[in-house]
Every structure is written in C-alpha cells, then in structure tokens.
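Hi V.,

You were right to ask for the full record rather than a summary. Here it is.
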Amino acid sequence: MFKEIIESVKEKVEKESGEIDYEKVLNISADTLYGVMEENESDNIEELKSRTLEFEKRNCKRWELGFQKLEMLREISLEAGMEFQSTFLKDKKYEQDPLLGVLMRQHANACRVSGEIILLLKGGYPDGALARWRTLFEISVNCLILRKYGREAAEDYIRHGQVKSVEGMEEYQKTADEMKREPYLDEDLISAQWIKEQVTEGEAHFHWARKYAGFSKLDKLREDIGLGKWSFDYKLASRNVHADYYEMLSLLAMSESEQDMLLAGQSNSGMVEPAHMTAIALAQITVAFLTTYIEEDDGLDYTDSTIFMMLIQKYVDAVGDKMIECSNKKI
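Predicted structure:
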C-alpha cells in the first residue's frame, strides 16, 4: 500500500509542478495513509479486540484455578484491612497514629498493585506482572521495617515523602519551560525548599530508615527484616523495569517456547512465579498492618485479624499449589 500511494502522489505532484518535491510527496503520502487507516480504524480495532479476548479466554481457562485463588486472596486481604481500620478508628488515640496511618496507606497501595498484577497475568504478560511485583516487594520491605521500628520511623517516613515531593517540584521546574508546562511561582518553590531544609536539617541524602536500621539501601533493609533470600527474584524483576539487554528466551513468557522468537505480545506461559510471589508479598504487607501493635497491651481486639491472617496463609499456599497444578495443563 505504501508504494502504491507514494507512486500515485509522486505522479500527481510532478504533474502539478513539473518537478518532484520529495518532502511534499512524503507529507501528502503520510496524510493519505493516515486517512486510509483512520477510515478502517474501527474495524481493525474490533478485530484486534476479538483476538485479544479469545487469547484471554484460553489463558484464563488454563490458569483459572490459580487466578481464582489469587483474586480471592486479594479480596480477603482488602476485607481484612478494612475491618482492622474500622476497629482501630473507634479508639480516639489511634485516629492520628502515624504508624497505623502509614501502614494503612501502604496496605491500600499493595491491594491496588496486586489488582494490576492480576490483570497483567490474565492478559498474558507475566514479565510485566513480575515488574509490578517489584513494587509490591518494596512496599513489603518498607512495611516490615516500619513495623519493626515503630512510630518514630513512621514519622520520618512521612517526612521523607515530603522531601521527595519537593525534589519532584525542583525537577519539574528545571524542565517546565522546555516541556511547555506552567512553572511554579518562585515563592512557592522557595517555601517548599525551606520545608525540605527543615526536614533534612541540611543532610544531602536524607533517608527515613537510616537512623533506625543503620542504612538506607533496599538490599540492606531487606536483610534487616529477613527478606535477603529474595535478592535474585528482585534482580530478575528489575531487569523488566530497566532497559537492559537480554535474550527473549530468558523471559517468563517464553519459558515453554521450543524455539527462539521475538515476543512482542501475549503468552500463556510463566505465570507461576509472579502469581505466587504476589500472594506472598501481599500477605506480608497485610500481616504487618493487621499486627501493628499486637505485642502491646493497647486494648485493641485482634481476634478478627488473627482469623484473617490464618485464612490468608491458607490462600497463599493454595495459590502456589494451584498455579503449579495449572502449569501442567496445556491449552
């Protein structure tokens, strides 16, 4: 089609002007092609949707039992968080508690990210799901560190978030003109930078966890709360976040491929690891939240939370078992 349109346009331009203006030919050809594609766009997209839905049906048929367990685990975790929230908010002394507030928000984030992972798995993108698991794992590390070091660490975690927001403003300001965005007013930026200076006390690389754990890097923090064994999985997930070079056959989605190929779309292979790893991380985050002050005699009733945690552990195990069972089924 490209050649035919270009030749047609070239003849027309040459006839009109007596010479060939190649820039004009290319511009007119691109406009013509865009018009043709736009005219048939709805039909093409409907066909694409149909193929995608057919794939998703086959994918979900193969992994149905595992996906079902993972979705149910997410719903139970969400319900457990909501129930615990309603419990501690009944007590006035916990309404503004920084540790509960931070863990509550991180748990909500984890439930949302888990939902994203489930959609990626159902859609046939296990490596994308693994990349999102990296975020879930980082939330888990943060929650367990916060759970270990308590209220003061949570307060510094909030302050660290304020610092990151100011740094975001500074970066925005650097590029605003070039990106044709409305820059911040100077007084607003100066005010934000003053807050940053107060929070960090002039420290160039302020980090909320250093004062408590003695370090700020994730690899050290995960060791501090017993998650050092996840180092390989985290590194593997990071490759899908960054633009490193790697062979297609190293992808989870290519794990059952009998030949090398350029995978540019969906696959119904490689779902076991990201699904089970998601279940484990979500459970860790949920348990950290549900047991925030369980060691203290604080008057909170942890009966429902305990039952939820027992149920969650059963579902974590079930996700792993069912995903392995489904992996042996070819559709």
